[in-house]
Amino acid sequence: MKVQDHAQAAAQFIKDEERTDWHDETLWFVRKKRDLAAHGIPEWEQLREWASQIKDHTLSNLSHYLESFEQKAIANGIRVHWAADGEEHNRIVHQIIADHDLKRIVKSKSMLTEECHLNEYLIQKGISVVDTDLGERIVQLRKEAPSHIVLPAIHLKKQDVSDTFHDFLDTEKGNNDPQYLTEAARQHLRDYFIASELAITGVNFAIAETGGFVVCTNEGNADMGAHKADVHIACMGIEKIIPKAEHLGVFLRLLARSATGQPVTTYSSHFHRPREGQEMHLVIVDNGRTRQLGRADFRNSLKCIRCAACFNTCPVYRRSGGHSYHTAVAGPIGSILNPNLDMKANADLPFASTLCGSCSNVCPVKIDIHEQLYKWRQVIVQAGYAPVSKKLGMEGMAAVLSSPALYHFSGKMGRTTLKYAPFLVNNGFNPWYKQRDMPAPPAESFGEWYQKNRS
Amino acid sequence: MNSRDRILQAAAENQPAQRDLPVIDFERLIRYDEPAVVFEQVLTKIGGQLIRVKSLEEVKRRFAGEDQEKFCIDAIDCTEEDRLKMKAWKATDLALLHTLYIRGSFGVAENSAVWVDELAMVNRLLPFICEHLFVVLEEKEIVPTMHHAYQKTDVSRTGFGSFIAGPSKTADIEQSLVIGAHGPRSLTIYLIENDSI
Amino acid sequence: MKVALFIPCYVDQFYPKAAIATLELLEKFGLDVSYPKNQTCCGQPMANSGFEHLTKGCNSLFVENFSGYDYVVCPSGSCVMHIKDHLHIEENEEAAQDIRNKVYELTEFLVDVLKIEKLEASFPYKVGLHQSCHGQRGLKLSQMTELVAEPFSKPGHLLSMVKGLELVELDRKDECCGFGGTFCVTEEAVSVKMGKDRVLDHERNGAEYITAGDLSCLMHMEGILKRRGSKVKIIHIAEILNHHLS
User: Fold this and answer.
1) Which of A182, B35, B156, C102 has CB atoms 3.0–4.6 Å from A210's, for a disulfide?
2) Residues spanned by the domain of B144
3) Side by side, which strands form the sheet with C2-5?
4) Which helix (H) or strand (E) holds C106?
5) Is the pLDDT of residue A416 over 80?
């Protein structure tokens, strides 16, 4: 399915340097807002630690909490479904729609349904779903995927949105005013809300103690859909569980501040029971999560609360755009989650990083993202997904670097011919030179100097 | 074995050794000398506004002064009969809802969120579908942080409840903040001051 | 105090001046410094590319070369971090552990071990300090802007002792330069773009020199500066700390 790997797609993205700068600056601005919000909370680092510990505890008791959550949810009148993978998730959702023979479906943001490719599945069944988050609606109209899990249309500029809305919503050509465009989307989507029969939402947190779940939005679109439609389907990964409602105190303080720098999202809606006459379904999805739980080095990636702070801080993401990650969840966190879903197809992602470590520092649940990137690299190479040329180069390098005699010989060669720095794989064509020079060759190495001057 | 059992079994097999829950030490939390002042500052920043009032009667007078040509609902004090009627309203009935007055249980200083449960909203759609939302809050019901907030209430007491912080908004077009996405275009808090009767 | 000088392979080959400055600087403090001549590389280039399993030879050689000293000091945070995190030898883990504890990046050695409060150095230029990520976030040589914590900077502290040196404020204090080991060639486009942006930040804020604790970052930025014909120069921090007006 993947046409280009990250490096190729990123190179494509960067060709438009002005837009790349804009993308970088815009997301950097979000990172700065996050910093400002975090610095407003003196106990910020303690909060991150608590959040991390709550998630560690939950993962260590996941089966127990899932069971008690299910029990409470059923007692609350919620119909609970379990899906082993994306395919089963899609089948369940389709079955519910088919059982009621419903046509008018709205969906608020859910990265899980993106991960499972629900929309595509339903389209094949002749069912269309209207995404109601503004950013998601924009990319849906353009037949694109979201490029960011919190800001789905961050790869687009307002004139792009204006063009799209002109085509689909009949807005004035060339009117790029975000206020005007948002108002147009409000009117357009309101009709869908009023007419909707079934609403699909994601889940930010599911509370084991009470059998309820929390959905956070700024736009109010999850609520508009869920409270109007006669059938509400909420979709969640098994890792969304938290033990108690009081733990939301920790997570809701961290989530929006980390995501956008807001003190909290406009709506943090707690669903516990369907309203009178409504059907409420909950689909609990594994899709590789229990496998990831079994990988000691990678399990704590399941602590992720999808704030995307790691996207915004990542210097690579900011300059390559979300689509270069060719997966539903892009960015640093996506690069440690996706190899678990398909190691071969996503073998490039853990290498799309300089391992600078900024991601781990902003993570509100303290996932050691950059360390897991390093570890995935080892796993991917061992699994045989590294290019052969790279493997040969590395073996050659290892031979040289573990032998002082070979090292001193090839160092001299390297310096005189300047074909490659000793740490770069020499595969015939070295991309270093495309836009960079090498340092001027010194007359002698330090080793040679030392020999003459100190011994 | 069905998917449920397979998932639960896989989780049980793959989950790591027991890790303990942390104790949330409230001594570590930020303190505010005047929570209501902070609440107002934050609310203003996120696009809401706060009006201090002396009593619930004053709020009622303000409601009476709203443009009654428009569709306005006062859900603060309503009879059982009204409640039944409001509950039955569908989205089509509420599409033109202009102004809604409801009661908030308590507010949170650090983020200016107000807890509104199903009892107060009567019909779950009301606070989301209205154009302008007015929430009545007592000053003494403002807690400093979300940790305190979850001590104030059992969130599963009613079938639905929401922390509402400011009017609906989006920044999905070039990160330009626009107030009034799908929900209310404005949010006003009527704060009933402490020293009032 | 017996100190072994650990000079990263690319510094040995391409930036001997930085290695000489490191040696002279340590000697000024009266230390008994020697350079084990059979040293090659810490193995990081392979490990970061996913080939940690090929670094066993490097690891054994490293332990062979650097055992028996009080400290191992290196003018590179990145190489030190790699040794601290990944130097393991199955048959002699104790020796590996010993070295992991004794290895120091130059500025942290000067600040934390030697507790330097005064330097006889002058460098009358405007200097931009690039925080190399592995030194900063890996070894915590400076506070990180992501964290809600007290600011500090070990390299900054040392540079403040240099006469005439004016440290310029950057718009982004600790953004990665994009070198990233083999990333610099496998992700050439992103790497260069990151490097360009970093260099522009220094230029915009008036730096005449860009300094850092890691020459890998500096080599990358120098490559970009040269290609663009910029007047801004790079210099390793050891060369500044060892610099006199003659």
Assistant:
1) B156
2) 34-192
3) C32-34, C2-5, C71-74, C103-105
4) helix C106-108
5) no
As given in the structure block, the two tokens for residue A64 are 């127990």
Chain C residues touching A315 at Cβ < 8 A: 175-176, 178, 194
**Strand, helix or coil at A133?**
coil
Is residue B161 domain-resident? yes
Question: Which of C:70-129 have CB within 8 Å of A?
Answer: none
The amino acid at A362: V
Residues of C in contact with A437 (CB under 8 A): 222-223, 226-227
CATH of C126-241, picked from 2.40.50, 2.60.40, 3.30.1540, 3.40.50, is 3.40.50
3-state secondary structure of C218: helix
pLDDT at A188: 96
Angle at A295 between CA C47 and CA A361, to 5 degrees: 65
pLDDT tens-place string over residues B60-94: 999 999 998 999 999 998 899 999 999 999 999 99
Q: What is the mean pLDDT of residues A153-169?
A: 97
Q: What is the pLDDT of residues A90-114, one digit of tens each?
A: 999 999 999 999 999 999 999 999 9
The torsion region of residue A34 among left (phi > 0), alpha (psi -120 to 50) and beta comes to: alpha
Nearest CA in chain A to B43: A263
Q: What is the mean pLDDT of residues A383-410?
A: 82
| Residue appearing with tokens 């687009």 | A156
Q: What is the rounded CA–CA span in Å between residue C148 and residue A46?
A: 10
The domain limits of chain C are 2-113, 126-241
Question: A356 falls in which pLDDT band (50, 70, 90)?
Answer: very high
pLDDT the model gives residue A2: 55
Please, how many CA atoms are within 13 Å of residue B77, restricted to the half-sphere of its CB?
5
Q: What does each C-alpha distance from A154 to A106, A114, A160, B174, B190 come to in angstroms?
A: 22, 17, 11, 6, 36
If you classify domain A41-287 with CATH, what class do you get? alpha beta
In whole angstroms, give the CA distance from residue A395 to residue C45. 11
Subunits next to C (3 or more Cβ pairs <8 Å) are A
CB-CB neighbours of C204 under 10 Å: 12
- So what's the pLDDT on residue A414? 59
Q: C-alpha A107: how far from its chain's center? A: 19
- Which residue from C147, C171, C146, C142 is spatially nearest to C159, judged by alpha carbons? C142
Residue-level length of chain B: 197
Its ipTM equals 0.98
Report the alpha-carbon distance of residue B11 to residue A134 in Å, rounded: 36
Question: A-chain residues within 8 Å CB-CB of B167?
Answer: 266
Give the pLDDT confidence score for residue C244 in this predicted structure.
83
Whether pLDDT at A423 is above 60: no
* Burial label, B172 (beta-carbon count in 10 A; 0-12, 13-18, 19+): buried
* pLDDT band (50, 70, 90) for residue A391: confident
Percent of chain A's residues with pLDDT above 90: 86
Could you read off the pLDDT of B125-140 as tens digits, one per residue? 999 999 999 999 999 9
How many angstroms separate the CA of residue C119 from the nearest CA in chain A? Answer: 24
Residue tagged 């409840």 (tokens): B161
> Residue C164: which pLDDT band, with cuts at 50, 70 and 90?
very high
When comparing pLDDT for C13 and A142, which is higher? Answer: A142
Location of structure tokens 């998601």 = A136
What's the DSSP call for residue B158?
S
| Location of structure tokens 């438009």 | A16
Whether A357 has its CB under 8 Å from any CB of chain C: the answer is yes
Distance CA A268, CA A450 (A): 66
Mean pLDDT computed over every residue of chain A? 94
CATH assignment at residue B111: 3.40.50.10420
Distance from CA of C115 to the nearest CA of A (A): 26
Q: How much is the pLDDT for A415?
A: 58
Closest residue of chain A to C44, computed from CA coordinates:
A423
Query: What does the domain layout of chain A look like in residue ranges?
Result: 1-40+299-386, 41-287, 400-453
